[in-house]
Structures are given as structure tokens and as C-alpha cells.
Amino acid sequence: MKKDIGPKKFLFEKRNYRFLFLSLLVISLGFILMAGGGSEDPNYFNEEIFNFQRIRLAPTFILIGFGIAMYSILTRETNRK
Fold first, then answer.
1. What is the mean pLDDT of residues 41-59?
2. How far apart are CA 26 and CA 74, in angstroms?
3. What are the two backbone dihedrals, phi and then psi, of residue 16, each rounded to the nearest 5 degrees?
4. Closest of 62, 59, 77, 61 to residue 17, by C-alpha
């Protein structure tokens, strides 16, 4: 015999999903900023690989995105009355 325990509830609230979507956008932006800088000619070394955008800015965006994702998973919705 199966008991009816009521309506199913989602694991996360709407707020959590918004933060998770924001984290995916920030992580994607970091990977987009990291792309490029290569050279078509294997005999030519392009110094563009080591600029500020690819070495500092892009990994910072990626780490911030992972931080936002962790926050979205660990936070709970507060019950406002």
C-alpha cells in the first residue's frame, strides 16, 4: 500500500536556480575571455597568450562563477511571513 505524502516539492527554490544560472553565465564568460591568442604558424610564438585577460581576468571570472554555484547550492530560502 502506497501512502500519499502530498505534492512533490523541488529540491531548490526559484532563487537558487537564478544564482545557478548566473554562475553558468559567469563561468562561460571566463572561458570566452580565455579563448584565442594562438598562432596559425607553429614557427611563430604569439605573446598574446600571456596578456592580463587570459592569465588573470578569465580565471578570476571562472573561480567567482564556481563560488556563486556553491552559494546557490548551499543556500536555503528563508520563510518570510
1. 89
2. 18
3. -65, -40
4. 77
Angle formed by the axes of helices 58-74 and 14-34, nearest 10° = 170
* Separation CA 73–CA 67 (nearest Å): 10
Report whether 29 contacts 60 (CB < 8 A).
no
Predicted pLDDT at 4: 67
Torsions phi, psi for 35 (to 5 deg): -70, 155
- The percentage of residues in the chain with a pLDDT greater than 90, rounded to a whole number, is 54
Report pTM: 0.79
Cβ contact 24:65 at 8 Å: yes
Q: Please name the helix (run of DSSP H) or strand (run of DSSP E) that holds residue 18, with its range, or none.
A: helix 14-34
**pLDDT band at residue 79 under the 50/70/90 scheme:** low
